[in-house]
Design goal:
Pfam family, one: Peripla_BP_6
Family: Belongs to the leucine-binding protein family.
GO biological process, one term: amino acid transport
Strand content: 15-25%
Keywords: Amino-acid transport, Signal, Transport
Protein name: ABC transporter substrate-binding protein
Distance between the termini: 39 Å
CATH architecture of the largest domain: 3-Layer(aba) Sandwich
Mean pLDDT: 90
Number of strands: 14
CATH class of the largest domain: Alpha Beta
Low-confidence stretches: 1-36
Oligomer: single chain
Radius of gyration: 20 Å
Largest sheet: 7 strands, mixed
Shape: globular
Length: about 375
């Protein structure tokens, strides 16, 4: 399969802005009931939380996907057909997600971007598999690959990769072995808890405390007081952005001085603003996308994203951009195939993306590495080699 570089996909700012008024994308929460055919637009659904505590994830995902679609449509779409991108709000609820999976299956969508929530992704997977609709998720829980759906793909690594990288840095490189856990009981939290726990166990390290909270919890004083009594060197946080920020804010207020560490949510502006810049300073983050200034491709993406939305790009938008670009590449290379043929074309696609070189394995994972960043001066920067 021909390798497609990002440089050819990143259209000029002028073209993006001109297209914004005419692109066939619905407003958040909207949909279309037109029947799919081989002459009209190709319909792709974005399913993510557009409301509630996880809505920032949904907003980033939609913008990244829309940017990719706008750029392809500006160049003629896929084999002369425009791409229609419709976004649906799953509210972060697996039941809502399952109902939306049935909806998009009945309305002629050929592929789905989303969701960023692992539990919703897992709930939707059986319906999408039965309907033969390929989906590429930003979720990272190993429970997604455990579904073993040939139509499910990931646009980033699983928690296993994130947390092995984190353990190498904290334990192998820095020699930190007194580590406390706080994670939530959702799919993401459980995935992080188990993956980091295994990475530590492989190194003969056991957590000095292991606290589990609920996904909607707001007061963490009891769990953090228990952790404070253990005086750990590291506080590992296995929760999403907002909850992670609240945990770290309260941890600092209780006098916990441990180095905070976690995966991708800890590198976002939502985490930073919720925790407070001073409280988040020094947070160690495992992520496949540390900076908009990493290379020419990320700089071009960030420039186009800024021009389109007047805000800075970040990891989740980059993931959705990569995932959507892979879908569109597979559609082009398969002459607009759907179902199993489209899934096979996605798996065969080798893609030089913002997150790295995608090469999908049989579990649907295409990216197999992350890097370490540290929040320094309010920004996530690559950790020094020393």
């Amino acid at each position: 399969m021909t390798r497609l570089g990002l440089g050819r996909l990143l259209a000029s700012t002028t073209a993006l802005l001109a297209l914004g008024a005419s692109a066939a994308c619905s407003a958040p929460g909207g949909s279309s009931s037109s029947t799919a055919d081989t002459s009209g637009p190709i319909k792709i659904a974005v399913v993510d939380a557009q409301s509630g505590q996880l809505s920032s994830l949904g907003a980033w995902e939609y913008k990244g996907a829309k940017l990719a679609v706008d750029q392809w449509n500006a160049k003629g779409g896929v084999n002369g057909r425009q791409i229609q991108l419709d976004v649906f709000d799953d509210t972060g609820d697996p039941t809502v997600g399952t109902n939306l999976a049935r909806k998009i299956a009945s309305e002629g969508y050929v592929a789905m971007i989303g969701t960023a929530e692992s539990a919703v992704t897992v709930a939707m997977a059986p319906v999408l598999q039965q309907s033969k609709i390929p989906s590429i998720t930003s979720g990272q829980s190993p429970s997604i690959t455990a579904v073993k759906s040939p139509f499910q793909f990931l646009n980033g690594p699983t928690s296993t990769t994130y947390d092995e990288t984190l353990a190498k840095y904290l334990v192998d490189q820095k020699g930190l072995k007194s580590i406390a856990f706080i994670s939530n009981n959702g799919s993401y939290g459980k995935g992080e808890h188990d993956a980091f726990g295994k990475a530590l166990a492989d190194r003969g390290v056991r957590p000095v405390d292991d606290q589990v909270v609920t996904t909607d919890q707001k007061d963490f004083s009891a769990a953090l007081t228990s952790i404070r009594q253990k005086n750990p060197q590291v506080l590992f946080v296995g929760t999403e952005e907002v909850e992670a920020g609240l945990i770290v804010k309260q941890a600092r207020e209780l006098g916990l001085t441990a180095t905070v560490a976690g995966a991708a949510p800890m590198g976002t502006t939502v985490y930073l603003s919720t925790a407070g810049a001073q409280n988040a300073e020094g947070t160690v983050v495992s992520s496949p996308y540390l900076s908009n200034d990493a290379n020419d491709a990320s700089r071009a993406f960030a420039q186009a994203y800024k021009a389109a939305y007047n805000e800075d790009a970040e990891l989740h938008g980059a993931k959705a951009y990569d995932g959507t670009s892979i879908f569109l590449t597979a559609l082009k290379n398969s002459n607009g195939a759907t179902g199993q043929q489209l899934a096979d074309a996605i798996r065969a696609t080798k893609y030089a993306g913002l997150l790295g070189s995608f090469d999908f394995d049989q579990t649907g994972v295409g990216i197999h590495a992350t890097s370490i960043g540290v929040i320094t001066g309010g920004k996530l920067v690559a950790a020094s080699a020393g």
